[in-house]
From TrEMBL:
Name of the featured protein: Uncharacterized protein
Lineage per the UniProt record: Bacteria, Bacillati, Actinomycetota, Actinomycetes, Kitasatosporales
Length: 54
């Protein structure tokens, strides 16, 4: 029975890698302006946090 469990480990790793490769290879819709706005919001938030620590 222990050998069966050891055989499941590479099987699950292979299935996980296959799923990950499938997911990464799919085209994902990107909106550059939304990403830029999100970056500016995060940057401003971190700037306020750092200014508050001083």
């Amino acid at each position: 029975m222990a050998a069966m469990i050891w055989l499941l480990i590479p099987l699950m790793a292979g299935l996980g890698a296959s799923f990950w490769a499938w997911y990464v290879s799919r085209p994902h819709p990107t909106d550059v302006w939304t990403d830029v706005e999100r970056h500016h919001r995060v940057r401003a938030t971190y700037g306020r946090m750092l200014a508050g620590q001083r």
